[in-house]
Amino acid sequence: MKEEQNYINRDTRWIIQFVFSFWMLYVGLADLTQRYFLGIEGVITASETTSGPRQVTYYQVLGSDKVVRQYIAGPTDKSLARGMVVGTRINKVSHQLWWEKNGARVDDFKLHGPLTITALAFTLMYWAVSQWQFRRKAKYRVPNQAL
Q1: Is the four-CA dihedral 110, 113, 117, 119 of positive or negative sign?
Q2: How many Å apart are CA 101 and CA 43, to the nearest integer?
Q3: How remote is the C-alpha of 91 from its chain's centroid?
């Protein structure tokens, strides 16, 4: 009975690895995709920064279409810079990682962290699938019989 329990635990280990790899994939791509799809353009009309160890800046941005939009810059890489002064012109086009501040290009998003985690997630996913295939083939393998 104990051997069967160990075999079941060994046989289902790939599921845990596979689920963990999807979580790693989410962690690796969440900031990247949120920064990539962010699009905002206009002049900052109001700015308020909170105090504390993880500061957040609340912006009101007046767009070229004369619509005031709210933007929250948090303490992560996915956000634009915090602490910009009123009157700063920002332009962040969707589907690009860089943005413009008063006409100057700002390329402050670092790719090495998200890409490393994503590569590890795909490696773990590949390992889990190969373990699943190995266990599945081993379950139906006919042992060698002596002649």
Answers
A1: positive
A2: 10
A3: 22
Segments making up each domain of the chain, as ranges: 2-137
Tally the residues of the chain: 147
Neighbours of 117 (CB within 10 A): 19
Residue that is written with structure tokens 């963990």 in the block: 20
What long-range pairs does 52-59 form, CB within 8 A, spacing at least 24? 55/82, 55/83, 56/82, 57/82, 57/83, 57/84, 59/84
Neighbours of 54 (CB within 10 A): 8
pLDDT at 14: 81
What backbone torsions phi and psi does residue 40 show, to the nearest 5 degrees? -150, 140
**pTM value?**
0.74
Phi first, then psi: what are they for 56, rounded to 5°? -130, 140
pLDDT in tens, 2-43: 555 555 566 677 888 899 999 999 999 999 999 999 999 999
Q: Which two tokens stand for residue 24?
A: 């790693």
